[in-house]
Each structure stands twice: as C-alpha cells, then as structure tokens.
C-alpha cells in the first residue's frame, strides 16, 4: 500500500510540476521568441541609451508618432511623456497588454495607444514621426513601404540597424545604441513629387 501511495503522489507531483512548466512556457514564450511575422522580430528591449538617443532625434518635432514593433512600450511611453500622441504596433498580444499596463502605471495612457497588428498590414500614412526597431532582413522592404506611404514631412528613426538605401540626415549614439534619423523630404521620391506639383514659371 505504501508503495502504491508513493507512486500516486509521485504521479501527482510530476503532473503538477509539468502543468506549471507548460503554463509558464505559454506565458513566457511570447516575450522571448519571435512572433509569427513575414520577417521574425525577436523582442529585445530598448536600452536606456537607445531611448535617450531616440528622444534626441525627436527634439523640435511634434504631432503623431508610431513605434513599429513596439515591444513592451517603452519608446511609446517615453515619447508620450514628451508630448507626442504616441502609438505602438506589436503582433505579440502579451507585450501589448503589458504596454497598456505600463502606460496606465506611468500616467500617460490617455496619450498612448497600442494595437495588436502585423506591421505589413498597417498603413502608416498619417504619422509624422516613425520609430523602427528592425532587423536587417526586413529593412529593404520596410524602406519601400514607408517611402510609398509617408508624407514628405515625416521623419523616420531607425534603431540598431540603418535602412539600406536612404542616407541618414542625423546619427547619434554608438554600437547597438546607434540611432539614424531620415527626413523623407530629402528622398528622391519626395523631390520628384515636389517637382510634379510645382507650377511652371513663365519665361
């Protein structure tokens, strides 16, 4: 009998521990592994230096701001504290819910919004300030998408990895904390648009 009781307890303990591990895995996995995207974006939190460098590139800017792949919301929250109407798009629902909690905790929930969405299915046409924490594989396609959608007065800020074709107007930071800022009005596409709408002068 004692042997069978011990066997039963052993099975219960094993089942309990196994269930706990499965639950923890289900909760933690979205934070540490890439979500299902066209290009995988692993969640790597922005450093304090990166946040400060982004804010530096936003000096003298205003209006709406979007963080593409907003993670745990720290860039969005920091921008909201500087007066921006800041929005984050993130495919990982756990991170979005956590971002909303952090915004509420920091008292900026009225100036922030977080959406669970695939960045490739969203139009960013109405944003003047765009922050991107990308990976090299996605930058060429994202460069094309933003050039097609954004107005000429937009500024795009890339963190960790620059865009492949655009030449940055401003750069700050070192190593992984480097931030590149691109003013879209200096791109060839915007120059072409400006020429097309400029009335001809009579000679």
UniProtKB/TrEMBL annotation:
One of its GO terms (molecular function) is protein-lysine N-methyltransferase activity. Keywords: Membrane, Methyltransferase, Mitochondrion, S-adenosyl-L-methionine, Transferase, Transmembrane, Transmembrane helix. The chain crosses the membrane at residues 9-28. InterPro entries: FAM173A/B, SAM-dependent_MTases_sf. Coiled coil: none annotated. Its main location: mitochondrion. It is found in: Mitochondrion membrane. This is ATP synthase subunit C lysine N-methyltransferase. GO terms for cellular component: mitochondrial membrane. One of its GO terms (biological process) is regulation of mitochondrial ATP synthesis coupled proton transport. It is a single-pass membrane protein. It comes from Aegithalos caudatus.
